[in-house]
Amino acid sequence: MSVTRKEYDSNEPHKILPTAGLPLEEAIIAYTLNGAKQLGLSDEIGFLLAGKKANFIILEENLIKMKVEEIHEIVPYSVYFEGVGSKELVH
Which residues of 35-51 are buried (b: 16+ CB within 10 A; e: fewer)? Predict the structure, then answer.
């Protein structure tokens, strides 16, 4: 919704504040680095860097190259929490 301004499960053509959407790259930063800053955890999480907790996902698709309307359908290939990967964490 932060990019398309449309409910992901809606077939309605209308959008919520259509001019308020973010470019995909900015939305990714908002959910990762800026989210960590808002939580006061940017010294620990938010992006990959030696010494930080490695919390990230691996996708089989490239978010930048796919239709933004389909991003909500992606299931992570693998999830890493504090540097430990597991396919068991994927629902």
Answer: ebeeeeeeeebbeeeee
Rounded Cα distance between 72 and 69, Å, is: 7
Contact criterion met (CB below 8 Å) for 5 and 20:
yes
Q: Residues 88, 69, 24, CA angle at the centre, nearest 5°?
A: 85
pLDDT tens digit sequence for 10-67? 666 666 676 777 888 888 888 889 989 999 999 998 888 888 888 898 999 999 999 8
Domain ranges of the chain: 18-86
**Secondary structure in 3-state letters for the chain:** CCCCCCCCCCCCCCCCCHHHCCCHHHHHHHHCHHHHHHCCCCCCCCCCCCCCCCCEEECCCCHHHCCHHHHHHCCCCEEEECCEEECCCCC
Query: Which pTM was predicted?
Result: 0.67
